[in-house]
Sequence to fold (167 residues):
Amino acid sequence: MRVLPRLVLAPFMALVVLGACASPDDEPTTAPGAPVSESSSEDATAPEPVETPEPFRGLPDGAGEGFESPAGVVVGEDGLIHIVTYGSSSNPAIVRGAIADGQDITVDVSDVPDRPATMDFVPTTSAFFLPSGVDLSKPVTFVLGDLGTVRIDTVEPGAQAWVEPRD
Fold:
């Protein structure tokens, strides 16, 4: 009689333990997760971020499809900068941070080291607000680590640039 309760509880306990091991930073969702706060600015400098959405599989609204490119930048309607990377769906490269030096933005884009990755090629989108002090009316250069560098002439909704494909 004692064996039956153990057999019934074992799968349930396994789900609880596996669920506790998951981390929201490990894998993107299938759609934007967290709400984005609206902020207004009377000058042309970047607004202070309040909250950004979780990374998600797919492209942001208005993005052209850069299938030949490993990455790109798309400016969203809401003032967010969307970084699109193409690669593994199980361990995608996502934005880990961004640092501004004038109009040059160095974006830390990486996957989880030593984590297995599938050999598929899907888009994953991460988003962030530009750091304060960036002039939205001037060109902005984004250094996306080993993926490459792109430049957007003005930070206006719908503006986008894609890294040139490697041979």
User: Anything to note?
Assistant: The chain has one helix and nine strands. The CA atoms of residues 11 and 60 lie 38 Å apart. Residues 26-34+45-162 form one domain.
